[in-house]
Amino acid sequence: MSAPTPSETPQPSAPATSWDDLLARGTEHIQRAFHELVAATSDYAGHSPDLIWGNLQTPEYAQEVLRMVAQLHQLPDDSHAGAAERTARARYLGQDGRTYHVLLGEQALLTGIGGPEVMRAQLEHLLAALDTPGLQLGIIPARARLHVYPGDGFGIHDSTRVEVEGYRGCETITDPKRVALFHRAFRLLQESAVYGPGARALITEALHSW
Fold it and tell me: Which of 56, 76, 145, 184 is the most buried (most CB within 10 A)?
């Protein structure tokens, strides 16, 4: 399966309230908004260089990530509620013909979120998800030759909307020229990824290292 190409699929509308405003109200609010975006998305392509993709996070892993977000942004710690909203997005995998093409950097398998117990459970969950209908999961080996620099994590929703996440918050991109740039970056990143048995081997190796 190749990376999606721009189409005439209507894009989900941007949130009436900005991501930054939602985040200021706590992780639950912004995760609920992302949940609504995922529910409205039929075709997704995304790259996560150093964290497990949100739709495949375990509750413990998600809660630890969101606890760190709350700590960084000096928010009340509602990470338990935020994690419940984030992990609920997994229900859309394999549902109603939705497709997901996800690239993880090998570093995502090694980034220490929550300690060894959390990481072992997370990687076991990732292995179990490899055969999920509608999901194509590639891993970019740490020593793979890259054809583009990794950049921030991003997600392309229905080929017309990009969400980019980082310390600065989340940026929504709908300008066709900028969206096309992310499509091109995804295709170049994909050239360095391994799938199937290769991806399983990297996840298993990382699991044993924990």
Answer: 56
